């Protein structure tokens, strides 16, 4: 009679074979593969979120450049201070007689430009708002409190939330800001 030194195993062609060992090995391999796939999916989701945030930042930069060009095209209103938020209210309205640069004064053109610029920001950025003001410290403030001190150069400040945030900008501190100093 022969003594088997391992658990009751069957011997096939000179090798001992333990029943169920290949099944456990396959399940462990499947678990490792599943964890790898979850990691790849997580990277994909985070990459898409970062891409969306970068896209919104690019839109804000484009609107800031549009604001700079708007002021450069109407230098008399710029030097007269009509693009400063204290002279042009945040609820500036579009002047119907202004088409291009004809049919209205420089101040009316500035009001028209400012109102349409703010409307475009609100429509292109989630909870987006844009302001132009005189400020010596451009990288401060928040949507409800711009912190414009009335000194220094004109500054364009644009605020927005991420696309997945549903709150307005006044509810909390989670917003993005882009500020550019204007020297036409």
* Shape verdict: rod-shaped
Q: What is the averaged pLDDT score?
A: 80
**Biggest sheet strand line-up:** 3-4-5
Radius of gyration, CA atoms, in whole angstroms: 31 Å
- H/I helix tally: 3
> How many individual β-strands?
5
Q: Give helix and strand order, one letter per element, not per position.
A: EEHHHEEE
Oligomer: single chain
DSSP strand content = 15-25%
Low-confidence parts, pLDDT < 50 over ≥5 residues? none
User: How many domain units?
Assistant: 1
Structural class: alpha+beta
- Distance from N terminus to C terminus (CA atoms, Å) equals 102 Å
Largest sheet: 3 strands, antiparallel
Can you give the helix content as a percent range? 40-55%
